[in-house]
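Practice problem: predict the structure.
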Amino acid sequence: MNRSIVYVLILPLFLSSCASRKTLKEIQVETLLKTTESWNGDLLPTYREGSPEITILKITIPPGSQLKPHKHPFINAGILMEGELTVMTETDQTLHLKKGDAISELVNTWHFGKNTGSKPAKIIVFYAGIKGKPITVLR
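Answer:
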């Protein structure tokens, strides 16, 4: 048998074999936070009645800035995307966050955040609220 005919017959089989062996990039799932408690150990409240409303905020806090004291009537969680952030309660419970940290926020507890770093703190926060109700209450 002529060599070129052998190549024409075998080459497609070889190439398809190589393609099937090709390693595909795998989808990866990493749990950043899974909890039934706020960051200070308080149990999260049970869900309330009403139409659910999901809100996702990106909050940027300049270096040295501090949020006003506030509380959230609904369960919320966030991920600090950049910078540093310190969260404090009225009773001096404190949580220090750095880039990549996840937080299960306090519910119905007065607190505030403060950027303790030298660059903006950027946090993405997910709120599981009720339609028509505020997700944040300022003092």
